[in-house]
What does this fold into?
Amino acid sequence: TAVAPRLRAWHALLDARRALTSRVQALEHGLSDANLRQMPDFETRVEVLKTMGYLDQDRTVTLKGRVACEIATGDELVGTEIIFAGVLTDVPPEEAVALLAALVFQEKNASPPELSGSLKDACQRAKDLAFAAGEVQMRHGLAVAPGEFVGATLRFGLTEVVHEWARGTKFAEICQFTDVQEGSIVRTIVRLDEMCRDVRNAARIMGDSALYEKMEAASAAIKRDIVFSASLYVSGG
It folds into this structure.
């Protein structure tokens, strides 16, 4: 009869529904287990943020935490530590932007820069701050090695190059300071302008007009010539 095929179809649909329901329940159970496994790690990170002053004891975001939320281009933790320690305040715009390049540059293998004076001191302060941040995370039980954390968050391969560029040196000449490819130099400097904007926003939240103006000057210093033209490097990045 005509009823039999329809009954078989309904049975097939019911079987499929039961199978899907069972699958959904299994996935929900797996997700809840995964969430439970992640909870200790989450709580540990919350304690790290409280220790470092990004959250208060009630888990309310502090001014420092709000600043960290503005740092979208480089590592927000190290970037915020650099800002709050006044490292950028103590150097001129061309050195400040050169230091920030270490947060933006992503390549592991690059010839080491030749730094001196206040820029070298600022870079060392940044390393010390990153190491201290790594130590806090390690003390709270996170799988973070402070030395490796410094290397992962700060890469100074283009710091000298950016410093020279911000001082007005021609592009062909700055390329002689490094073995990094020209396209990577261009992409890094373009992203560095975004980092300057992040720090400007942070300065605005902090009410630090001097830092805001310094970042405007830093941005103007790097935003010129071939780097910000419609080049293949930029459009291909």
